[in-house]
Amino acid sequence: MIVIPAIDLRDGHVVRLRQGDFAQTRRFATEPLALAGRYAQAGARWLHVVDLDGARAGTPRQLALVAQLAQAGSALQAGGGVRSQSDVEALLAAGVARVVVGSLAAREPERVAQWLADYGSERLCVALDLRLGDDGRWRPALDAWQTTAQIDFPSLVERLLDAGLRHVLCTDIEHDGMRAGPNLALYRVLAARWPGIAWIASGGVRDAADVAALATTGVAACVAGTALLEGSLSLEELSACSRAA
């Protein structure tokens, strides 16, 4: 399992949101390009970038900065507001190795299935940000987590698997930005039920102990944002994870 550093962008700045709430935005003083360079020097194979402005607007807003980040040394997995084929192609043209598609996958899975056929399963990552409903069913959140899809999570996964789905970034929203640890039970279930998917765990990673715990669940990778920014997960530990994977 590898650790993928996350950089969330808002108005060109590095930020973190609490449970996806734009009203609870924390801005960090570090510059995105400098931060990406430090992660690359530490050995990060991939960098996960979220254009929060794009996610809110429904179309990518920070392509120029994303293109610069794609030159920092790590392969770039990026998204935020991807709604059309032209959005996908613009990100690929900017140097993104894997485009992240979120809300559209839940709204129009047939279109995303066609993109998997057109671009290949290695060029797309589906982001499924989950909320547990009162009925006990997991459903994807949409539009920067401002609404919730009606389709349930397993049905969506099965639809896209038939089209060649390979990479899924899965976030338990209740754990995101809360520093309470990842939802290990959820990821164990996902990896066991769909072993052909390279699951990327996101939300709640605090330190190297959480990374080690996630490695036992069967996920292919985990995303770390705040832990790296605050230093509770060090660059040395990121480097060690990258070498060991």
In N-to-C order, the SSE pattern is: EEEHEHHEHEHHEEEHEHEHEHH
CATH first level: which class? Alpha Beta
| Total count of domains | 1
CATH fold-level assignment: TIM Barrel
Write the layout of secondary structure elements.
Layout: E1 2-10, E2 13-18, E3 21-27, H1 32-41, E4 46-51, H2 52-57, H3 63-69, E5 75-79, H4 85-93, E6 98-101, H5 103-107, H6 109-119, E7 124-132, E8 138-142, E9 147-148, H7 153-161, E10 167-172, H8 184-193, E11 198-202, H9 208-215, E12 221-224, H10 226-230, H11 235-244
Parallel strand pairs: 1-4, 1-12, 4-5, 5-6, 6-7, 7-10, 10-11, 11-12
Antiparallel strand pairs: 1-2, 2-3, 7-8, 8-9
Description:
- With 245 residues, the chain is α/β, with parallel strands linked by helices.
- The chain has a single domain, classed as TIM Barrel.
- It has eleven helices and twelve strands.
- The chain has helices at 32-41, 52-57, 63-69, 85-93, 103-107, 109-119, 153-161, 184-193, 208-215, 226-230, 235-244, and strands at 2-10, 13-18, 21-27, 46-51, 75-79, 98-101, 124-132, 138-142, 147-148, 167-172, 198-202, 221-224.
- It has an eight-stranded parallel beta barrel, surrounded by six helices.
- α8 links the parallel β10 and β11 (198-202).
- It is globular.
- The N and C termini lie close together (6 Å).
- The mean pLDDT is 89.
